[in-house]
Amino acid sequence: SLPAYHADWVYSAGAEGRVTWDDVHWNFSATLESDNLHSTTLVYGHFKSRAQEKLMVAPEKDWALDEGRVLTAKAGLTYDDSNRDSGSLSPLAEVAIDHINGPAGLAKVYVSYARTTETPTYFALNSNPSGGLFFGNPDLKRETSNNVELGATAGSGAWTTTAAVFYRRDNNLVDWTYAFDETNARAANSVDIDNTGFELVSRYTSKVFDLTIG
What we know:
Blueprint: E1 6-21, E2 24-39, E3 49-64, E4 70-82, E5 85-98, E6 106-118, H1 122-126, E7 134-135, E8 143-156, E9 159-179, E10 182-205, E11 210-213
Parallel strand pairs: 7-10
Antiparallel strand pairs: 1-2, 2-3, 3-4, 4-5, 5-6, 6-8, 8-9, 9-10, 10-11
């Protein structure tokens, strides 16, 4: 038999910008994307082509504080849509204090919230739902993720360090799950997952080399 063949033609266009009006910075972006799948095996789904749009607008404002500190607040909305799935409106927000010049080189602290969404891949949607090592699921819906994060940046000499703690809740996240009575095969299913994490990254920069550890 001939080997499996997959080709996904993708066409996209996008624009982004930042405009300042009356002391408010308006951040915006727009992305349009369409694709067309050609495959010998991913043929079990409801469609083989898809168009998607993403629009974002987020006003941002700065306030000067004492000792050179700057308070920045940003809030906005993102809209994701597809001709194969329902649209979704997502908020985003961030508050940050910059140029702190605090102890241990503390330079910036921030707290942010963002909601993001995406649609399942063709591999999950169009694989055979009743055979093979990876069972597809043509009825998978849009995935969503809500993330809350608290972070800080500090620097001293050639060193810069960033640290963050976050909590993320994923809903309808597409994952490959298995049943205990059939552990050799995986099936694409929607699952809900809560994640709590910590991230620490330090970077040393010199004229000769850069070193990053985390």
